[in-house]
Design goal:
alpha+beta, 2 domains, 5-stranded mixed β-sheet, 16 strands, globular
């Protein structure tokens, strides 16, 4: 298996200054390569500059600026150029598929937060022994930085990344050949129904409340954003007070993200420990949270009909706050590590079908869903909570998929 481990770095004041300089120089390299591609396409007869062309110039760049660009890892600089190449590849792929993607943009120093070392031992060395609390990672140009390793990193370290989050620094290890740790079988299979009113409901009738972390911090976040907006101008003056206000907003967002991530890990771990097989709906979160298309009035130029965008915005915000996609990804990873199975099933009519696995007749009708919370079959009279019915149907479809696979 391939797994990523994220550990907190504890650099000294001097090492932190060098880490910031490393990010700034890689950001400058990224922006310079982007500018070269733009100029080559616009002014040189639409010349397309590739990664290989820019990577070949690295030796000259390092020789021209040995004090800064020359002191960092050559491989990490290649990874930065490859990151730009991937951004352009994704842009052209979306253009060909008919989407409207944004052109790759220049990165501000505050928005370039990651440097990647493609190979352990090439510009970066992970020094770790089992149960060693004085673990260090050696970074070229920075030195040996102390790491708070809260758990052992298993497998073989492939790539190492250094990331800045607010005022904290992290090292991320991408490892392969990570051994699985199977849990003892329980013989249980469960279906889950994701929601907004409740985060999830299981086919056994258990409801997990939706913590709504963003909503809980909404007032504090709004106050911090209002204070940040008091600084005038589009390119706000980077005063000490402005930087402090920006850090305050970022700190709140980080807290919300960590709370949500912790909740997802705990909920997924509970499902994996208690069930051999977990079924869930195959959800298109991006499509569900997409803003409705505008409806122009053919009789009046520049006038549009109401399309319900304002009403849907609240639902979109609640779905994104719940973080279904992140949770299902965590669930799949934990199940793989524990030797369990996660089966995504078709989400159509799961809340409109009378559940045959619970003594229902299997009748499908829109009228079966009386309210958001109540299900009552118009054919056989089966009554149950609508979320439980959805979970029961998911469990039934997951069981059928399991039999077909066998």
């Amino acid at each position: 298996m391939i797994r990523a481990y994220k550990f907190l770095l504890r650099p000294t004041a001097g090492q932190e200054a060098l880490l910031r300089a490393m990010l700034a120089d890689h950001c400058s390299l990224y922006n310079g390569a982007l500018q070269e591609r733009r100029d080559g396409y616009r002014h040189a007869s639409r010349t397309s500059i590739k990664y290989g062309d820019q990577s070949a110039q690295l030796k000259e760049i390092r020789a021209f600026d040995p004090e800064w660009q020359g002191c960092w890892s050559f491989s990490s600089q290649q990874a930065t150029l490859r990151r730009l190449d991937q951004a352009f590849a994704a842009f052209f792929r979306r253009v060909k598929s008919g989407e409207k993607p944004g052109y790759p943009r220049f990165k501000g120093v505050g928005h370039f937060d990651t440097v990647t070392f493609p190979k352990d031992g090439d510009g970066c060395r992970w020094n770790s022994t089992p149960h060693d609390r004085q673990t260090r990672v050696r970074l070229q140009g920075v030195g040996h930085v102390r790491v708070h390793q809260h758990r052992p990193a298993k497998g073989r370290v492939k790539t190492i990344s250094v990331k800045r989050e607010g005022r904290r620094w992290y090292v991320i290890l991408a490892c392969d050949d990570v051994p699985a740790e199977p849990l003892p079988p329980t013989g249980a299979i469960v279906g889950i129904d994701m929601g907004v009113t409740r985060f999830l409901t299981t086919s056994t009738g258990e409801h997990v409340a939706n913590p709504r972390f963003l909503e809980a911090m909404a007032d504090e976040l709004a106050a911090a954003q209002q204070h940040l907006s008091t600084f005038p101008g589009r390119t706000r003056c980077r005063t000490k007070k402005h930087r402090a206000a920006a850090r305050r907003v970022a700190k709140i967002h980080v807290r919300i993200r960590r709370q949500r991530l912790d909740f997802h890990h705990k909920a997924a771990l509970t499902l994996v420990r208690e069930n051999d097989v977990t079924g869930h709906e195959r959800l298109n979160t991006a499509g569900m949270t997409k803003a409705p298309a505008p409806k122009p009035d053919p009789e009046h130029t520049g006038v549009f009909f109401a399309n319900g965008a304002a009403a849907k915005a609240g639902l979109n915000k609640s779905i994104l706050d719940a973080g279904w996609g992140q949770f299902l990804g965590i669930l799949a990873n934990k199940a793989e590590s524990a030797g369990r199975r996660v089966i995504p099933v078709d989400a159509r009519n799961t809340s409109r079908t009378c559940p045959p696995s619970a003594g229902g007749c299997g009748h499908v009708a829109k009228e079966n869903r009386v309210t958001q919370a109540k299900f009552e079959c118009v054919k056989c009279g089966f009554v149950e909570n609508a979320d439980v019915v959805g979970a029961l149907n998911v469990e039934h479809r997951a069981g059928l998929a399991l039999c077909d696979a066998a």
